[in-house]
Amino acid sequence: MGGKLPVRLAGFEEKYREDLLAFRLPAEQAKFTGMPEETLDEALSNAGKIPVVILAGEQPVGFFVLHTGEDIASFYAKWPETVLLRAFLVDQASQGQGIARAGLALLPCFVRNLLPAVREIVLAVNERNDVALALYARAGFRDYGLRRSGMKGQQRIMQYPLQDEPLPGPQGYMDQEEALRRRLIGHFRQSPLLMEVFRLVRELEPYPYYIGAGCLVQTVWNGLSGRQPDYGIGDIDIIYYDGEDLSYEAEDRMIARGRKLFADAPLPVDLKNQARVHLWYERKFGVRLAPYTSLEAAIDSWPTTVTSLGVRWSGEDEWHIYAPFGLGDLFAMELRANKALVTEEVYRNKTDKWQRLWPELKVEPWTPVGAAR
């Protein structure tokens, strides 16, 4: 989330004008974008331009303009089904709180609700604006090699396809986390492998279960970075909970059941009873572990904020998503340690491996618990 207040997008209203005109940017950012004092009134006088405010609570903290219609024909050949994002910025006083990331996460559903015929969002970024390039890439915009010359230098055209983006609910509004949940489901639906696993794993009922961690987040990373859905995925992790029988034999029977169930899966499927993890964890990892009381308690302790994720699908549109740290880091392609259990060595090994496969990932360095950041 952007700071402590919920972030949302809203069409411009006059009550926001004073705050918007007071926005300021560092010089290194201001040279790449227009300020509201330059772009707002011009957008209001043009029916093809839509000024949009980023709000934290009810306070304006950011701004951008959506360009539509024939005005963008000279910019982009597919203009009839495209919206152009321009003048995107967050006020200097509100930077460093995840506001830009949150605003971009909300943008696809906002556009789908406001402009249902639009199938793509495009933007242009100066090639020298490394911070913006990284921000848009982590938000899911893709660089297919299109370039144009701008007044301030060469620009990259980045594109975000909306064909498979889920529509908002009937009220047309959703908060950031709900928007991210819908995007998450959209990525899963683009993976035939995951959808087949989601379908088959329902055979484990009535035991509580989730598909967890790596295969889920890696599917999203692949979608955000334009790779094939199954790229880099080594296995499928499935967790279940049987607190009545903690024997090795009972778990082994479940593993054999899973082996038969997923006999045609192209990847190994790892099935574990989280109720008995404490029986072997210290022997394997050298760390004493209290018994997990639920699947959610197990997920709460997983190594990173991103991979602390469990999902199951009950059919149709009934999805159960458990993400104790939210989904913001996942869609920002950022890795942070969850220090409930993980050691520095394990965190470094995992993040190094993932970053080799997905160089776009941004890794937060390990800091000792209690150290100043």
Structural class: alpha+beta
Question: Largest beta sheet: what is the strand line-up?
Answer: 1-2-3-4-5-7-6
Q: Output the helix-strand order.
A: EHHHEEEHEHEEHHEHEHEHHEEHEHE
What is the CA-atom radius of gyration, in angstroms?
23 Å
Low-confidence runs? none
Please provide the count of β strands.
14
Helix content: 25-40%
Question: What is the total number of structural domains?
Answer: 2
* Overall outline: elongated
From the N-terminal CA to the C-terminal CA, the straight-line distance is 19 Å
Kindly state the mean pLDDT as a whole number? 88
Model description:
It is built from 13 helices and 14 strands. The chain is of the alpha+beta class and 373 residues long. It has 2 domains: 7-161, Gcn5-related N-acetyltransferase (GNAT) (Aminopeptidase); 176-363, no CATH class. It starts with 6 loop residues before the first strand and ends in a 10-residue tail after the last strand. The chain has helices spanning 17-21, 27-30, 36-44, 99-114, 130-138, 176-189, 192-200, 214-225, 248-261, 281-285, 295-299, 328-331, 344-357, and strands at residues 7-11, 49-56, 59-67, 82-90, 120-126, 142-150, 153-161, 209-212, 236-240, 269-273, 310-313, 319-322, 334-335, 362-363. The strands form 3 sheets. It has a 7-stranded mixed beta sheet. Strands 10-9-8-11-12 form a 5-stranded mixed beta sheet.
